[in-house]
Design brief:
With 202 residues, this protein is of the alpha/beta class. Helix content is 35%, strand content 19%. Strand 5 and strand 6 form a beta hairpin.
Length: 202
C-alpha cells in the first residue's frame, strides 16, 4: 500500500476567523502557521506514509512544505476545499498512490501514533477491499481525517455534516466503512476554550 497524505491549508491570515474577537490578526496568523507546521512535522514522522502533498493558496505554507520535503501544489483562487482535494488527488496519481489520507492543517494535538493507527486499521482489511476510514470531530458531525483506498473510491464531501455524508457516500459506492474515534484527531481549535492548555505559540 502506497499512502499519499494530503494536507489542505487555508491561507494563514484567513483561518480561525471565529477566534477573531479573542485573538489579534497577527496571533491568529501565528496560530494557523504553527498548527500547520505541527501537522506537517507529524505526518513526516509517521511511518507508513509515502508522500505528503500540501495544497494551498498561501505561498508561506507552500514554501514551508517544500522546505520540509513535501510536494507543494498551488490552489486556484476560486477553489474550495473539496475542489482543492480533487486537484491533489489527481496529483497523487503521478506518485502511484494506492490510498489517500486527508489530514486538516489545524489538528493541534495530532501525534504520529494517531496517523499510524489509521494505517494499522486499514491493514486489518483485505488489500483489494475498497475502504473508507473516517475520524470524526468531537461533535460527531465533521470529518477530521479521512482515509480512502483506492484514491478514487468516493467524492470529497467536506463541509456541513461531512461525517454523516462521507459515511453515506461510502456505503453507496460499496466501500467498507470504519469509524475511528480518537481524541487527538477529534480535537478542534474553534472556540477560546480550546486554546486553554494548547502547547503551541499563538
Amino acid at each position: 500500500m502506497s499512502v499519499a497524505t494530503i494536507i489542505p491549508v487555508k491561507p494563514f491570515a484567513e483561518g480561525k476567523s471565529r477566534l477573531s474577537g479573542f485573538l489579534s490578526d497577527e496571533r491568529r496568523y501565528t496560530l494557523n502557521r504553527n498548527m500547520f507546521r505541527h501537522v506537517l512535522k507529524t505526518a513526516l514522522a509517521a511511518q507508513g506514509i509515502n508522500d505528503i502533498l500540501v495544497i494551498s493558496r498561501d505561498e508561506d505554507a507552500l514554501n514551508l512544505a517544500e522546505e520540509a520535503g513535501a510536494h507543494a501544489i498551488l490552489e486556484g483562487h476560486n477553489s474550495n476545499l473539496n475542489a482543492a482535494l480533487d486537484v491533489a488527488r489527481k496529483a497523487s496519481s503521478a506518485l502511484n498512490a494506492t490510498a489517500l489520507l486527508i489530514v486538516p492543517a489545524d489538528l493541534a494535538k495530532l501525534e504520529p501514533k494517531d496517523l499510524i493507527d489509521i494505517l494499522t486499521s486499514a491493514d486489518d482489511h483485505a488489500p483489494r477491499t475498497s475502504l473508507v476510514i473516517i475520524a470524526p470531530d468531537e461533535s460527531q458531525r465533521g470529518t477530521n481525517a479521512l482515509f480512502i483506498r483506492p484514491p478514487d473510491s468516493i467524492n470529497f464531501l467536506f463541509g456541513e455534516k461531512s461525517f454523516e455524508r462521507h459515511q453515506a457516500t461510502a456505503i453507496n459506492f460499496g466501500c467498507q466503512v470504519s469509524v475511528l474515534n480518537n481524541p487527538n484527531l477529534g480535537f478542534d481549535v474553534d472556540e477560546p476554550k480550546d486554546l486553554i492548555n494548547l502547547d503551541m505559540e499563538f
